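MODEL INPUT / OUTPUT PAIR
PAIR INDEX: 1
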Amino acid sequence: MSSNAKTLITCAVTGNLVKPEQTPHLPITPVQIADECLAAAEAGASQVHIHVRNPETGKPSMEVELYREVVDRIRRGNRELIVNLTTGPGGRFIPSEDDPKIAAPGTTLLPPEKRVEHIALIRPDVCSLDLNTMNSGPDVVINTPRNVRRMAKVMREAGVKPELEIFDSGDINLALDLIADGTLDGPAMWTFVLGVKYGFAPTPETLLYARNMLPRGAFWSAFGIGRMEFPIVAQAWLLGGHVRVGMEDNIYLEKGVLAESNAQLVAKARDILQSLGGEIANPREARAMLGLPGARSVRGAER
């Protein structure tokens, strides 16, 4: 993809790790999450990446009905917007201090099929597929090749396109093996995660290296965590990639100024891209780029 093609902006509206006490603007309930997704689309996002939360506590949730409500509300408001649901939760391990074989509180490990249950039932356009096994801050995230294959099988059977989330170069090597053995369809849809502690560093060198490992014709995006969110928007575009912003990754519009909405973050990314000479893809154009079918009806979301 050349830098003069249109750019897809993804908005990750709430994520798993940001806490409500960090910002009063974080969407929590299905209504808030869906409304943030629709407003992000108005600002220029053609894909939304979605986690759900317990409406009472604000803590991460994997309840299928919460996902279903969010997707149905989005579909009613905007049938063309690309809906991308996470499958990341369920991969975190925290060893106990006395015996590292024993899981300590905070461990979320689940059977692979449980992590993709909502994908099989709701069938969004896209869902994330994490390939990382790594130190993630003080914890460990575990996604073994066998478990990634089991999750990929459910995605394929549901007709949902996997978005390969890449945290380090070894993840790319794993994904290339999965493409080679037919577990995944190439050249695939890739997203580089830059700035997670002990993963890829958010630098131009990292992005260039990662991009150059991809198969010819791959569709790729990148995003930076925290203050590196907007520098990576520019850097990804310069290298021919697509971009992601949103409160999952960063809660500030600028230093010391909290973003009041995800739409503000999308608008800033859009302005950066346009100032560089970029054009923003609308959802219909983004679907064509990704080889996705046309707009899905509300009924489609309920299948």
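PAIR INDEX: 2
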Amino acid sequence: MRVDLHTHSTASDGTDTPAELVRAAAAAGLDVVALTDHDTTRGHAEAIAALPEGLTLVTGAELSCRIDGIGMHMLAYLFDPDEPELLRERELVRDDRVPRAQGMVGKIRELGVDLTWERVAAIAGDGSVGRPHIAEALVELGVVASVSDAFTPEWLADGGRAYVDKHELDPFTAIRLVKAAGGVTVFAHPGAAKRGRTVPEAVIAELAAYGLDGIETDHMDHDGPTRDRLRALAADLDLLTTGSSDYHGTRKTCRLGDHTTDPEIYGEITRRATGAFPVPGAGGRRP
């Protein structure tokens, strides 16, 4: 069984529609894929409608969090999307995305780059606008060579010259809300140092004591020593360990299934969840 628990569609900052993503996941030989767009569940219905036979969909979202000035992402799986308090927080984050992105465009223009909000909005389309869309616009202008190269202190990294804060959840609050909605929480790419400051292990231990279910260990932004360190930390804290592609379509170089989650750990995630259940494919349809 091949399980990829972290992907993005055009509902946030991926380049595949939800329907295209599940078809690509099946073509890549996956048995299970999680759709975890940033702070939204808007792509789930389309993904379910197009779900090919033989592929199971795990519904989820990647929640924007911040603690002690450090940005972090919390993967939330199989929660009730209509739970009022969690829904309200997701909407607050989503509604702050446009003014935040406009502020970053303004800063970039002040740095001498002829970037327009209209172009960023066109790249985002119907998705939740975010830094990857701005990064793609910078690639188009030849300012940086790749989307990843825009996520540096020079440009869009946390605290970078063009960075602008947005509404983000305290991770302890995120854990509480996801648990209340029947979901499971996994700290996404906790060792991705090239993205900026990372959360100290002492704080991860506090999150584990509060109810964090797991950490994402196998990820494109983790080198071998980082993965080994995170596995040891997870063992010490009795946390689940996951692996995933963090697929964004053509916006990143990673491919579906580049990293996967142990089927037994996937089974434990589904056992812990009560807010929603994995959806088995029934053949799907083209929207």
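PAIR 2 NOTE: The longest strand covers residues 56-67.
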